[in-house]
Fold this protein.
Amino acid sequence: MLLAIEQGNTNTLFAVHDGENWTAQWRAATESTRTADEYAVWLSQLLNMAGLQMGVFDGCIISSVVPQSIFNLRNLARRYLHVEPLVIGENADLGIPIRIDKPSEAGADRLVNAIGAHVVYSGDLIVIDSGTATTFDVIAADGGFQGGVIAPGINLSMEALHTAAAKLPRVAIQKPQRVVGTDTVGAMQSGVFWGYIGMIEGLVTRIKGEWGKPLTVVATGGIASLFHGATTAVDHFDPDLTIRGMLEIWRRNKDKVHG
């Protein structure tokens, strides 16, 4: 069994793969100071609820955009799962060309998404990931990571409005009934929601124009489902893109890890 740990700036996903299917997934708030022991207590309880134990794993793969957390996640795998983890960006061979000026700067999450998209969708791709940041990455038909765009995430923008403007409340993100809001909450929801739709449509159009060839657009991330049906700029909404990419990387490297 494989434990995949995908850590973003806001949430950390723990997912269990039994060799054929993803059988369990849990999320925790990302805290860079959380120790391996704290992770172990939390994880062991959830595993028990799923009828599993720490000792069932023969592999662990970690993708993290929070460098200070990797030490504790690695210790979790070593001390409690008794496996040497495969860490994206350290000892994992991704098997794709990274065609940017400084390949070391490419975020683990963006590279994992690139692989997760390439194994399912053919041709050149744009992968949109809506999280703490909203990223637009171009993946060539051969799987090569070509670069992309990084913009503030929708939650970050909403929080910034509330924090910086004394009279603007904290509001839930949802699709408003009207574009023109008739109260403060409605106006804020419209500005953020339709503003992000406008950003998605505008950037996709510009990327396609610059690329000069057809591109299939795939969206993923916790917020992406909000935009489903609200724009024709996205061809596929794929919530499993990231963990699919991690599984593919594991399959490409497991012999090296076990060896």
Remarks:
- The longest helix spans residues 184-211.
- The beta strands are 2-7, 11-17, 22-29, 59-64, 86-87, 125-130, 133-139, 145-152, 216-220, 236-237.
- The chain has a mean pLDDT of 90.
- Helices lie at 36-49, 67-81, 108-118, 154-164, 184-211, 241-258.
